[in-house]
Amino acid sequence: MRKIILLPSLLLILTASLLLTLPSIHAGAPGLDFLYAKWGDQQTDLKAYPGSTVTLTVFLRVTSYQVSGIYAWLELPKPLISPSGLNKSYAWSLSTASKGTIIPLTFQVVIPPSTKIGSYTFELYMEYYWGSSEEYGWYTFELPVEKPAYIDVDPVTSFLESGKIQSMVFKISYHGEGTLT
Q: What is the pLDDT of residue 180?
């Protein structure tokens, strides 16, 4: 009878001690709040299209104490890749930031031409120091890949004479949404 009670108790103690030794991974991150993510950098908003290489910036806010030495990687959804061809893109912030500071982390993402239009889910993983303890955290977020805007230029004038100064008429059609520059 004593062995039957002792065995489950021993298993419970071993399981608890194993869980306490594993790094704590959070659906969030102690000392850091995820604010938002966007295509572009701190100053510029971009749209992401198939066939482009785009900057993706994640904004985090320090909620208490100090945070330093952030090493972050972004798990990219298929078929998106990093410029080096991996399914991860990396960023880091080596400076120390205090409560209220907003930290931008910038990643590079390649969107292959065959990528379908739609919303993609990204996973952000981080290792950093919060005060004096090493912490781990993660967040998920979605960003869209959109249909590119483009311009068609078709000549309306069908005949030009060699050696003469002439006018030519074009039909210009804009397709898509957003501003083209």
A: 57
